[in-house]
Write a structure and sequence with these properties.
The protein has 291 residues and is α/β, with parallel strands linked by helices. The chain has helices at 19-32, 41-46, 73-84, 109-117, 190-193, 276-284, and strands at 7-12, 36-39, 53-54, 66-71, 90-94, 104-105, 121-135, 138-145, 148-152, 160-166, 169-176, 178-182, 205-211, 221-224, 229-235, 240-243, 247-250, 256-271. The chain folds into two domains: 7-119, Rossmann fold, CATH 3.40.50.10330; 128-263, Sandwich (Tumour Suppressor Smad4). The protein is elongated, with a radius of gyration of 20 Å. The termini are far apart.
Length: 291
């Protein structure tokens, strides 16, 4: 049966020791199905079998029907932002540790990818966040995040003070080490370690999770994903806004970080047997019993 995917973009974690071996199995499965293979330069250098074409990362999604990410969740996060606007679905092959998003194990890559090529997969849309920093009414930085936007204190500074508004309504002033604004995808990342709730990916929701708040009544809050969130830095030295831990902007007092849901979603294809709560049980060790 012909595959619905004719061209695959492959992006690998270039410093992973087992990347060449995994790429060999992956490209073999794709070539057996007649799928054209495109890679970025770093991935192509690691591959034992050269691709049909090599492109710069920001051009790799052009003409691709599917993007296969070989690495960890961090690698997939950076790819998702590039592929979402072009509506290219992603498949994650795990070379990392936890692998909440890259759920195909490297030692099972060939049969799992063949199932996807045969149309045996489940598709899942993930919310992205558009965020920008304003100073004096002018934007100084803008980007997109898949996991979270974190406004936090610097490494040696005291706690910061923030003013938080949602859809123009003042919510609270927060004195804390920071505030995490997380998507359902990001709810199992930094937000989870800060005491935030796990949000199912199908929810149209965003969580606001304070980091070590001075007042314990400042609790995590879940809001609708259509909301516009504005965070103003009222006090604090060396504060910064962090986006998926892959980009950041240093903040000054009165800077405003604005966050909205992006009009583009990341689409992730999972093997047919994938179940969200089963994945959580395995990754978070909910199935372990204390003796």
């Amino acid at each position: 049966m012909p595959s619905p995917f004719k061209t695959a973009a492959i992006i690998g974690k270039s410093d992973a020791a087992n990347l060449p071996q995994t790429l060999e199995q992956l490209t073999g499965a794709l070539r057996r199905r007649g799928v054209a293979i495109h890679m970025d330069a770093a991935t192509a250098t690691a591959a034992r079998s050269k691709p049909d074409a090599t492109h710069a990362l920001d051009k790799l999604g052009e003409g691709a029907d599917i993007c296969i990410v070989v690495g960890g969740d961090g690698t997939l996060l950076s790819c998702a932002r590039r592929m979402a606007e072009r509506k290219v679905p992603l498949v994650g092959v795990n070379l990392g540790r936890l692998g909440f998003l890259t759920d195909i194990p490297a030692d099972n890559v060939a049969p799992a990818i063949e199932e996807v090529l045969d149309g045996e997969y489940t598709s899942e849309s993930r919310t992205l966040l558009d965020a920008w920093v304003s100073r004096g009414g002018k934007r100084t930085f803008a980007t997109t995040a898949m996991n979270d936007v974190v406004v936090s204190r610097g490494a040696v500074a005291n706690m910061i003070e923030l003013s938080v508004a949602i859809d123009g309504e003042f919510i609270y002033n927060l004195r804390a080490d920071g505030l995490i604004v997380a998507t359902p995808t990001g709810s199992t990342a930094y937000a989870l370690s800060a005491g935030g709730p796990i949000l199912h990916p199908a929810l149209s929701a965003i969580s606001l999770v304070p980091i070590s708040p001075h007042t314990l009544s400042n609790r995590p809050v879940a809001i609708q994903s259509s909301a516009k969130i504005e965070i103003t830095l009222l006090r604090g030295r060396d504060a910064r806004a962090n986006f998926d831990v892959q980009a950041h902007s240093v903040l000054e007092v009165d800077d405003v970080v604005t966050i909205t849901a992006s009009p583009h979603s990341a689409v992730i294809l999972h093997p047919k047997a994938y179940r969200y709560f089963s994945m959580l049980r395995n990754k978070l060790h909910w199935n372990e019993e204390n003796n």
